[in-house]
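Supplementary notes for students who missed Thursday's class. We covered one full example, reproduced here. Read the sequence, then the structure, then the short commentary at the end.
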Amino acid sequence: MHILHLVPDLSRTLAEAVRCVRPGGMFIACHTRPERNAIQEAEVEVHELIVKLLGRAPRRRSNVNAEQALREALGPGAKVEQMTLATWTETQTGRHEVDELANRVHSATWEIPDDVLAVAVPRAAEIYERRCGSLDREFETAMQMVAIVVRAT
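Structure (token representation):
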């Protein structure tokens, strides 16, 4: 859980993981999925801003869909299922998201140079303020823990 986005080549990593699963065995990868709301819309826009400022996507953020990569690793007839393991609600604010960016909480921010981050943080605050109406407006965000299950044949 929360590790696959850190590997440099997700497709190759998943292909090797699947290769190691015995016939009849399972490989399970989990991730969290928030409902789409103003916070997530602002997050997408902030990511686009960082890509623009860096001139590329941060390397630690995989753009490969794990489920698709698993299907490719398994080949035709792959049995891949998605299931929701848990649901809960989190309270989010734009200010919290901006603070997490400024403090490099998430791996996608670790490689952003200080000078780029210094430009990104105030602009991110503007994005969250515009999208959310206020940096301190609270959003109850429904979250899911989703498992992608591969059954080896």
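Commentary. The mean pLDDT is 87. The chain has one domain: 4-151. If anything here is unclear, bring it to office hours.
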